[in-house]
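hiii so my PI (J.) wants the whole complex modelled not just the main chain, which honestly fair. so below is everything: two entries, each one labled with what it is. i double checked the lines twice but i was tired so who knows lol
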Amino acid sequence: QLQLQESGPGLVKPSETLSLTCTVSGDSVTTSNNHWGWIRQPPGKGLEYIGSFSYSGNTYYNPTLTSRVTISVDTSKNQFSLRLTSLTAADTAVYYCARHFDDYSLPRYSDYWGQGTLVTVSS
Amino acid sequence: DIVMTQSPDSLAVSLGERATINCKSSQSVLHSPNNKNYLAWYQQKPGQPPKLLIHWASTRESGVPDRFSGSGSGTDFTLTISSLQAEDVAVYYCQEYISALLTFGGGTKVEIK
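here's the output for the full assembly
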């Protein structure tokens, strides 16, 4: 059974950098027919795609966040990570990691999600 | 950018009755080469992550009860719960995945009347 688990700080100061890790079990982040990515949800609001990667070498970021986002992978630990810089209160959200179905080498719908981790940006 | 608009924002339906949620995309999500609609529906219960219900606009994910069905093509889509059960109380989101933004609709909250 595929499981994803987010980990990282729950509170980050404005202007600082957020680092989150997603640990995958039941599948490998190196399989070429999936993408692995991040989606966030501000409290009481809707869902926003942040970005994703496939081990075949393709990485995609939401254009509204691309200047501040980096997604990386650690195959030895079967983990992938999110780095988001220059945080503001608007980045306060539940951050989910997810597996995306691959179609034409692009990320599509998300069939597995982590439980999510709340990140609050506040001094 | 594709904008996904859901309606209504919320609805209250009696147990056993039909619930209908609409989703409209600002551009067609029908991919002509494979004739597939790049549209998914998710269910999110309080304190839980979204759960994939339907992809390709009408294909139910494994394990999803058959009271959930998706229909539509191009820019107009519908999620129907044929006989609402208490466990279906949730917020439902549509998502386009034909673009690189994987944009979600604003959500529809379903409650029991």
